[in-house]
Amino acid sequence: MQKKILIVDDDADIRFALSLLLSQTGCQVFEADSPKQCLQLLERVSPDLILLDLNFTQDTTSGKEGIALLKQLVPLGRKVILMTAWANTELVVQGLQLGAVNFIEKPWKKAGLLNKINQHIYVQSDRSQSLDWVAESEPMQHIEQLIQNLAMTDANILILGENGTGKSLLAKRIHELSQRNAQAFEALNMAAIPETLFESELFGHKKGAFTDAKQDRKGAFLRAEKGTLFLDEIGTLPFHLQPKLLQVLENGSFTQLGAEQNLQANVRLISATNQDLADAIEQGQFRQDLYYRINTFTITIPPLRDRKDDILPLANSLLAKFADKYQKEIPLLSPSTKQILLQHDWQGNVRELSHAMERALLLSMGADINPEHLQLVKVSKQSTEEVPNLSLDELEKQRIINALEQHQGQISVAAKSLGISRNALYRRLEKHDLAGIE
């Protein structure tokens, strides 16, 4: 589903520049030159984001017209980013207090502008959430609607899905929508816990409870008190340890190792697995009673290849996240790149897409993302091998080659584009046996 952005500004040049920039990101752009035209447009268009100038021709410096319009937009549930050429801190604070989600000062920097827009346009809820959570496809919109209802309950939820589909993101999303969102979200990977430390990790221990217990330690149930406890890879929990977890879920209490007093468990439990637990029950590897306890509701996340409408929004969201991480401008996806992304099988799901976008951002040198930057590897469905990633040295070498090719072997220019000195670039050329490439 194409995102819609409404620009409200009386300056035609500003509207033109913004429209040109935002249309290249794949968004549908609408324009209004006054508060009156904005309100008229909202009668037939429902934008995902409004870029609102605070100063109009009738009152060019006070921001009164912009603030007055903001007061009408926020109660309508509109998401608004403020724009002004006047660095009026008091006015900005007033706008943010009234419900604007962010602020942009003119003249803007392209990277900063796109980062702020991406941070808000892909957020699906009033509450904060990870940019990686995108629900544009029909299956994910169905899940979004479901968790909007389930989140406000304390029902235990079991999340199913292939590796990399975003099970932990969904668990965090449920927590953020819940009444427990002001408390801790504690995630525990069950596959990573040694059997000898299982009770200590879940329930905690007292000093001296065993040889290496040098001090008291809270377990996951206490760390997540009044919040959400997420048990990832629950299907890997050894059969002989499952009764210990079942006892807590049945009785609502547990005892720390080395302690005598029972403690009450006050958590919302979310579990996840990529295994078929029904089959594990038949094979005698998973307890049926524990299964019933952890899955009051079951949510299955479809693989990325089955929700094509999420691929490009996810790719753009991930590019925005990594651009912020590496302090780079957000590159655009070329038409041919978009086609490849949509056709790729994504056996690694969102995790594979995330790695691909991070790698492409670094290889693109800030320009558009082209097919050669993706370096996608076809993996057969029968293969269990991970898609190989470039090492840091290989990535650095590839970036240097790209920079030199882009700048026709000019060392000074290439070094500047890489953000390093000439001497530093020469040292790296020697390191990677590229001394003759310039």
Automatic annotation (TrEMBL):
| Record domain Response regulatory: where | 4-121
Looking at the record, the residues that make up the Sigma-54 factor interaction domain are 133-362
In-chain residues carrying the UniProt-annotated modification 4-aspartylphosphate: D53
Could you name the domain of life of the organism this protein comes from? Bacteria
What GO MF annotations does this protein's record show? ATP binding; sequence-specific DNA binding
Q: Which GO terms describe its biological process?
A: phosphorelay signal transduction system; regulation of DNA-templated transcription
Family annotation (InterPro entries): AAA+_ATPase, AAA_lid_NorR, CheY-like_superfamily, Homeodomain-like_sf, HTH_Fis, P-loop_NTPase, Sig_transdc_resp-reg_receiver, Sigma_54_int
Q: Does the keyword Zinc apply?
A: no
Q: Which UniProt keywords are listed? A: ATP-binding, Nucleotide-binding, Phosphoprotein, Transcription, Transcription regulation
Protein name per the record? Sigma-54-dependent Fis family transcriptional regulator
From which source organism is this entry? Answer: Parashewanella curva
